[in-house]
Design a protein that fits this description.
By secondary structure, the chain is mostly beta strands. The protein is built from no helices and 11 strands. Strands 2, 4, 5, 6, 9, 10 and 11 form a 7-stranded mixed beta sheet that branches. It has a 4-stranded antiparallel beta sheet with strand order 1-3-8-7, with no helix packed on it.
């Protein structure tokens, strides 16, 4: 019913920049929140950034000042601009969204397929 499709990962040198995007499609009534998580090699998945209706945006302390999250509600798309990348930012990045399919059903949680970001010289 709902799909999240990510794009924009890749290999970049330390200090470089990458931009990720994630677009939700399908039967969507309202998107309450769109978030980016990441899963570094051998570690647990962690929240990186969130853009939430009525709350605004927030970033993990480890990426503040370097990453920016933004949403285009008309396109059901969330972006993650990553600057001054570090080797420790290497991870699979996942898009996540809390979506209402209609006006009466509770929100459902959806995930993208993940995109690899590798920061290495």
């Amino acid at each position: 019913q709902v799909q999240l499709v990510e794009s924009g990962g890749g290999l970049v040198q330390p200090g470089g920049s990458l931009s990720l995007s994630c677009t939700a499609s399908g039967r969507i009534f309202n998107i309450y929140s769109m978030r980016w998580f990441r899963e570094p090699p051998g570690k647990q998945r962690e929240l990186v950034a969130a853009a939430t209706n009525g709350i605004g945006t927030n970033l993990a302390d480890s990426v503040k000042g370097r990453f920016t999250i933004s949403r285009d509600n008309a396109k059901n798309t969330v972006y993650l601009q990553m600057n001054r990348l570090k080797p420790e930012d290497t991870a699979v990045y996942y898009c996540n969204a809390l979506i209402e399919l209609d006006s009466v059903s509770p929100m459902s949680n959806y995930w993208g397929q993940g995109t690899q970001v590798t920061v290495s010289s």
